[in-house]
From TrEMBL:
Signal peptide: none annotated. It comes from Streptosporangium saharense. One of its GO terms (molecular function) is hydrolase activity. It comes from the Bacteria. Residues 25-244 form the Thioesterase TesA-like domain. One of its GO terms (biological process) is lipid biosynthetic process. Belongs to the thioesterase family. Keywords: Hydrolase. It holds the Pfam family Thioesterase. This is Surfactin synthase thioesterase subunit.
Amino acid sequence: MTAPMLVTDWFWVPVPRPNAETRLFCFPHAGGDAPAFADLARELPPDIEVWAVRMPGRGGRFTAPHASDVNELVAWISAAMRPFVTGRYALLGQSLGALVAYNVARELSPESPPDACVLAALLPPHLWNGPPGPTGQQDVVSFLTSIDDTVGEVLSHPDLRDLVLSVVHADLNLCQDYLHRWEPLLDCPVLGLVGNDDPTVSGEEMTGWARSTTGPFSVQVFDGGHLVVQAAGAVLARTVADFLRASAGVA
């Protein structure tokens, strides 16, 4: 197997495929990082190469400063992506990553429009009652354990717990003052993904993302919870691959 490749501080390629026809830039959920997409990269066919975004303030970029808000993060990632979107490319974001991916796609569209966009596990902004994340009296720990049944072991270690919670808080704070405007719209196919056990958004609610584009829109529901990209595994990878190929006019 080809060794993973670090392209820049911002991008990690779990499975390098230099002859791939499509680069799929993947944006992680709150508290997540690039390795969240390693399994997806292995499951996708050889014509699609995953470029996972390495978020600041964690992992190999632990010392990099967190963005102050969504707009600043979008500006940073858009600038980092520009040299690498000269060919066919698409974006995929999960949860908070879906909001960032969607706005990066809009930022890049005037000069380098994406071929497709995949948005997973995020309530459309016009349905928000507040920023994504814990609501009411629910604290961050109970929120995390409700969406990821593997996180409990990590949170049981005091040092890891403090690190994880600081990163999650920083990510959730990005949305505190987010003001959404639908314009400008995307002009590419958009696919919504959601787990049937996601406590944060339903398949019906995901259809609200149809407002994000002048292109075709569809939603796929999978078995799984909030972290649907990881939960649905190979089944989701096939759906994404078929969607990207159809968007490119490839059977």
